[in-house]
Amino acid sequence: MALRSRLFRGNKALEACLVQDNAHVPPDTTGEHVQLIQRALVYLGEKAIAGIEYRTGTYGRTTAAALLRFKQLRGIINYNYQTHADNIVGKMTIRRLDDELVSIQDRLLGV
């Protein structure tokens, strides 16, 4: 199973996040993969990520809040050990982000 969206496909950190628990993306992480997550959130309607976080690829306070809103609105909760959404990008979250990005791509391309 691999990521399918043009934005995420081929990014090693995000591909690992999809299949490995130890590759989840928590707050205070930095890097290109964080910038890709931030871009996805913006494409999907989250407009409140601070410019400095977005420019530096820092998973800071506003990125965490945007991700939490994304998960709460979609009910992304692992009921095996959670009772409410958290602000960590794990397997379920990266899959949902990717699926929604693919949906947008298809709609834009008329597929």
Descriptive notes:
By secondary structure, the protein is mostly helical. The protein has one domain (12-106): Orthogonal Bundle (Muramoyl-pentapeptide Carboxypeptidase, domain 1). 53% of the residues lie in helices and 0% in strands. It is built from five helices and no strands. The chain has helices spanning 12-19, 32-43, 51-56, 61-74, 91-109. It is globular and about 40 Å long.
Principal-axes shape call: globular
The level 1 CATH classification is Mainly Alpha
Number of domains: 1
The largest sheet is:
none
CATH arch. level architecture? Orthogonal Bundle
Strand content: under 5%
| Unreliable stretches covering 5 or more consecutive residues | none
Question: What are the SSEs and their pairings?
Answer:
Blueprint lengths: L11 H8 L12 H12 L7 H6 L4 H14 L16 H19 L2
Helix pairs in contact: 1-5, 2-5
Main attributes of the structure:
Muramoyl-pentapeptide Carboxypeptidase, domain 1, mainly alpha, 0% strand, 111 residues, 53% helix, 5 helices
Question: Concise description?
Answer:
The chain is built from 5 helices and no strands.
